[in-house]
Amino acid sequence: MQAINERTPALETVGGIRAKGFATRCVHAGVDQDDSYKSATTPIYPTSTFGWHGLGKPATYDYTRSGNPTRRALEENLAALDGGVDCRATSTGMSAVTAAMNLFEAGDHVIAGHDIYGGTYRLFADVLPKLGIDVSFVDLSDVGNIDAAKTDKTKGLWIETPSNPLLNILDVGKLVDAAKKHGLVTIADNTFLSPALFRPIEHGVDVVVHSATKYLNGHSDVVGGAVVCGSDEHAQRISYVVNAMGLAQSPFDSWLTLRGVKTLGPRVRQHCDNAMKVAMFLKEHGEVERVYYPGLGDHPGHDLAKTQFDGFGGMVSFDLKGGFEKAKRVMPSAELILLAESLGGIESLWEHPWSMSHVSMSEAARRTAGIGEGLVRLSVGIEDAGDLIADLDRALSA
Asked: Which of 25, 155, 199, 214 is catalytic?
């Protein structure tokens, strides 16, 4: 597994230099938007509209829903990080998912993993079928299930790995090969890892989505999303959809996200380091029944994660002995770790998937996915690991 910032992607000009390293791209890609004053940071253009040079002569931008210099800087940055041809920044992570699913139309069928984010599951199970797009949820750890689920109307494959919240690891290369065999469009939700640890387009995935609220922004002060495309065809369609449906991110939120991305590399390193220490502590704790973290040698996806990703991530899930009743006593009692939804911020958060992030799934669907009433999902922040472990020890003893 290669360390963050030591990778050497294809050379390209970013910010006037030939950028080799990931950290350089984080800091420089897309930011040079100020030709007048050479500002070191990208300015915020809060305007709703832009003047035209004359009838039939629009300027570079005409209306902020359609395009904005601040948002464009973020989009150029994220496209460079993910290795895509283009990106569109959206108002939320779910608007990014919505935009990506507009690559399909009424009558189409899509295959998705059975253990995915609850909000995505709700969109796929309750909203899209009313619009004529059907989704089948299958265990994608067995690539053969794609063949079993496919129909003559199947057009797409939705991939989420590590899965939310059980951190199951899927072999993306094998899934892409199976999808290509059937002519399916592949879309990967890369929120949990970010391009700092995984770039699905390098593995043949067509489209990548992010909840930029999470690791990309990293400071829990904005909501946003991103759709990165590996081909011009998909990029043009996503651009049209984001404009037509009004899904674009605001200039100020784009600026906040671009500011957060600059420190993505060092933040993710600290998240990964802390998560490993926390996972090892939880594995030995008497109140914990099972720990789900791909960095642990006994995780069933450990070897695959070691070769497929550039790190194991900052998310740790675990089953509490005592189930829901234990969780109700333990989780509000932490001093540092906030009981709250979301993830990927500099501060540590934990939540209860059964009653919070995945409550939109039916009980049967949660149980099929392996989500139990004692499961806790922990987003490990960048605090001192010793303080987090002490806080967990106190809370688990509540």
From this structure: 214
What is the rounded CA–CA span in Å between residue 127 and residue 133?
9
- The β-bridge relationship of strands 185-189 and 225-229 is unpaired
Give me the residue label for tokens 């359609």: 66
| Residues near 384 by beta carbon (within 8 Å), at least 6 away in sequence | none
> Measured between alpha carbons, how far is 229 from 79 in angstroms, rounded to an integer?
8
Give me the catalytic one of 65, 174, 290, 394: 65
To 5 degrees, how large is the angle CA 233–CA 239–CA 223? Answer: 130
Of 37-41, 135-139, 181-185, 378-382, the range with the lowest mean pLDDT is: 37-41
pLDDT tens digits, 163-195: 999 999 999 999 999 999 999 999 999 999 999
Measured CA to CA, the distance from residue 302 to residue 148 in angstroms comes to: 27
Assess contact for 360 and 354: CB atoms under 8 A: no
Q: Is 214 a catalytic residue?
A: yes
Please check whether residue 113 is in contact with residue 137, taking contact to mean a CB–CB distance below 8 angstroms: yes
Structure token pair of residue 156: 């797409």
Q: Is 189 among the catalytic positions?
A: yes
Round to whole Å and give the CA distance between 298 and 307: 16
Encoding tokens for residue 324? 């829901």
Catalytic one of 25, 82, 117, 292: 117
Burial class of residue 57, CB neighbours in 10 A (0-12, 13-18, 19+):
exposed
